[in-house]
């Protein structure tokens, strides 16, 4: 492989270090940090030492993943992220990984969970207490926010980038402000704070309830998923100023900020909430924290507003990334109406590509379906993504062996690569070896369903590139065309073979 040169995007290069840092922050920090900590604490038997060890491992996972992708991005500095990495690493059979990954991602590109969470917590923040009112209106509010964000993305991408950078700063400041509560309780006398300190050095290594290898592993998985989303910044490398240099500075800074926020907030949980109470919490642990600090009614409003604000920023970033990823997939030209969906009409932004996640999400919102179906759809998308992560990170070793003369500007360590490959392998084999469908009764196992969908995507590739050309006696010829908006896409044309049955050359 020769070194892949950077490709300028019709959208221009308009993101600097600060924008990239805040985009990573916005993408990773959602509602997870306010929900999973009590579950992790219970999984590790109430041991503060094991609790923080889990968060250190989870934090390292985001760093390792981002370093692996940053090395790939320094060698392949183009928009598309996982898509472009896989298609360059696994270029044989011809176009297979392009089609399988592309069709799957387009089909499952929705943000239904975050949109619903935003609508629900915005109503809580506005002091709506009636559960029937919340049940009736959280979806319409989520839909309205989805449309608002979509319109902003269509009209001015640069405005949205600046907005998400500004709100990202606010998110970090608010999270650090929350952590100051715990630090205040730790250093100030209880007569000033009116909150006792529940974290004592003598109990730091003490295991209060049972802990097993299985429960500790479960805790690590919960922590890792709280860092999910670190990879999507590479979807927009073509819009980053000097992408290699920017990512070299922005990646570790973003991960440091996120880990700092998470560690300090978790420290606050242990300081403010008694251990025996923390072990029993089944609801959002953040709610318990805010109720202890601000009182029951005000605490709920403050937390709800913070979650709605945090998830709202996440929705903006995810929609932005999905639209760019879809556009890159349609540029390959193998899907119906590719030229339309890859274009930037009419505002110089990828409106057609954005329509797909908006329509899919809107349909989910409109259909009266049990909540476990939404979670099931999320698992259908997340499970194969872990497979693709492992393939991409293992691909670093393939590229190094294939092209030893290329020296990456950013280099992942052997530990980074090994961690990501083995974790992805674990996530792939776990649901297959020990399938658990207790959460999705009445639905087929999501792991097997995901694999079946991938096989169907592979069947689409097989018919398009192998069966149909052979049966109807034509070759597929690929050419690059430039649209009126400057976007370059691939166009596939049929070249008829000689009627006398001459030699067929498969692509």
UniProtKB/TrEMBL annotation:
Intracellular or extracellular location(s): Membrane
Q: Which GO terms describe its biological process?
A: methionine import across plasma membrane
Key word Lyase present in the record? no
- Its GO CC terms? membrane
Keyword entries, A-Z: Membrane, Transmembrane, Transmembrane helix
Under the GO molecular function aspect, what terms does this record hold?
Answer: L-methionine transmembrane transporter activity
Q: What is its main location?
A: membrane
The keyword Nucleotidyltransferase belongs to this UniProt entry's keyword annotation: no
Task: Provide the membrane topology annotation.
Answer: Multi-pass membrane protein
Q: Where are the transmembrane segments?
A: 20-40, 52-73, 94-117, 137-156, 168-189, 209-230, 251-272, 301-320, 341-367, 383-400, 412-433, 445-463
Descriptive protein name: Amino acid permease/ SLC12A domain-containing protein
Q: Which organism is it from?
A: Pichia membranifaciens NRRL Y-2026
Upper classification of the source organism reads: Eukaryota, Fungi, Dikarya, Ascomycota, Saccharomycotina
